[in-house]
Structure to design on (231 residues):
């Protein structure tokens, strides 16, 4: 994708995931075994899906752009990325156990942060939040069912922000996030959006499809049905 358009509109994306979290394939209902996924590619149907776009602040304070197919987030998830980058446990743990360990370890040191935000170019609002995410897919963080109502082709991103919350209460609710039953708890702000802009006077770390390229301020947008997915 370049300038918000496919470089080749006829190109199709197929993949076999063998990474740490493999969360995107869960939104597609694909088996966790790469052999099964590979065997199905030949006869797979093509569907058009949305792509997310993030215009964010890089470490050198310049504005950069990244596209994502699954989930972009900020706050605790970005700090978890940093934790994993420097952890030797990556060599021994994988998938859900690794992300769960990193999340529990990080939540004790990562504070709630003040976020100023706008939804769909509306009025500025403010929230004290430990974690925020914009979801195209449904899973992240090694099988957390973070956005159970997200659809890959509805032209919208599911915005979830975890309001100011204690560590104890976060850990109490953590199993609900894995099950996808957390949307109705009082500490969750949830709305479907086309555009979301956020900034902070604090250093708020981004996570974009499992990588941490920068920080808020950032603008998150959806590009409807521009990717041909054959899977």
């Amino acid at each position: 994708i370049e300038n918000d358009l496919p470089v080749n509109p006829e190109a199709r994306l197929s993949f076999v995931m063998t990474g740490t979290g493999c969360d995107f394939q869960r939104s597609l209902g694909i088996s966790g075994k790469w052999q099964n996924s590979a065997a199905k590619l030949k006869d797979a149907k093509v569907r058009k899906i949305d792509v997310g776009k993030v215009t964010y602040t890089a470490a050198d304070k310049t504005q950069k752009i990244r596209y994502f197919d699954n989930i972009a987030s900020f706050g605790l998830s970005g700090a978890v990325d940093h934790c994993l980058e420097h952890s030797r446990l990556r060599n021994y743990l994988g998938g859900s156990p690794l992300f769960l360990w990193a999340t529990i370890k990080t939540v004790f040191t990562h504070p709630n942060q003040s976020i100023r935000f706008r939804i769909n170019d509306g009025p500025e609002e403010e929230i004290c939040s430990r974690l925020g995410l914009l979801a195209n897919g449904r899973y992240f963080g090694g099988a957390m069912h973070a956005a159970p109502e997200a659809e890959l082709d509805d032209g919208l991103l599911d915005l979830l922000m975890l309001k100011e919350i204690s560590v104890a209460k976060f850990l109490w609710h953590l199993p609900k996030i894995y099950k996808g039953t957390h949307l109705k708890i009082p500490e969750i702000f949830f709305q479907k959006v086309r555009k979301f802009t956020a900034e902070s006077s604090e250093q708020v770390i981004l996570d974009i499809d499992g990588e941490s390229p920068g920080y808020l301020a950032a603008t998150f947008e959806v590009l409807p049905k521009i990717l041909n997915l054959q899977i």
Q: What stands out?
A: The beta strands are 46-57, 63-68, 71-75, 113-119, 125-135, 157-163, 188-193, 195-199, 206-208, 215-230. The chain has one domain: 24-230. DSSP finds five helices and ten strands in the chain.
